[in-house]
Amino acid sequence: MGSPKNTATTPARSWFVRGRLVGAAAIAFAVLVVTENVLFAVTGALPYGAPIEEVLAYYAANRDAVATVSALVALYLPLLLVFVTGLHGLVERRGAAGTDWSRLASAAGATLSAIFVLVNVLQIGLALSASALAEPTPAFRLVWQIHAAAFALALPMLGTTCIGSALATHASGLTPAWQRLLGMAGGSLLLAAGLGNLAIADGSPLIFVGLLGFVAWLVWLLATGVRLVRS
Questions:
Q1: d(CA 114, CA 93)
Q2: Is the pLDDT of residue 216 over 80?
């Protein structure tokens, strides 16, 4: 039979391990997403308003890059789910404060993952079909447009995940006030950009509003992840 001291330390040790796991998932997710976007930048990925002929040429020339990005997505989506669900568990263990916000973040994160899967599946389809086409077909154009629309509609889900997790962690005492403000600012920019999803899917510069919010959320993720790992 364990001593009262050992029994008392078991929950604390369990919380410590869970916190480090959630923090590590947040850091790894952010690093993989940054890697994905650097790869897109290096290969000269096109905006959604680019001529469809240039889109075909890009996917025909960058099949290997798309394969690498797909592998990164396959890695970071489970990490996103580990983060949002694990965060909900941490918040629940600390009491009622922030629980509703963490539930919102979990639901939005799951929805975001599903949309990201669609975005990536369509991108794989573009890469597979581009090498067999001499010129763009109506079907190729349609897949590109659906890909753009799915990405644009991912922005409000990303913003909701950001706001929910920022409010949940602050309410439960896991993060300081400045991180709540950073998360709220990033999430608000993502939600604002999401309102113009049709324009973004058509190539509007409004996408840079969402990009700024996304960068803010990545910084929030890294700061929160480091804090949890050290806790």
A1: 28
A2: yes
Report CA-CA distances (Å) from 99 to 104, 167, 174. 9, 10, 13
Task: Note the pLDDT tens digit of each residue in 83-137.
Answer: 999 999 888 887 767 889 999 999 999 999 999 999 999 999 999 999 888 899 9
Which of left, alpha, beta for 176 (phi over 0: left; psi -120 to 50: alpha)? beta
Alpha helices in 1-98 (DSSP H): 4-43, 52-61, 63-93
For the record, the structure tokens of 224 come out as 């929160």
Q: What is the pLDDT of residue 70?
A: 94
219: left (phi over 0), alpha (psi -120 to 50) or beta: alpha
Handedness of CA 92, 94, 96, 98 (dihedral sign): negative
**Mean pLDDT, residues 188-217:** 94
d(CA 211, CA 167): 21
* 90 vs 31: CA distance, rounded Å: 22
Phi, psi of 62 (to 5 degrees): -125, 40
36-50 pLDDT, tens per residue?
A: 999 999 999 999 999
Q: What sign does the dihedral 44-55-193-166 (CA atoms) show? A: negative
Q: How far is CA 193 from CA 10, 83, 199, 215, in A?
A: 45, 24, 9, 14
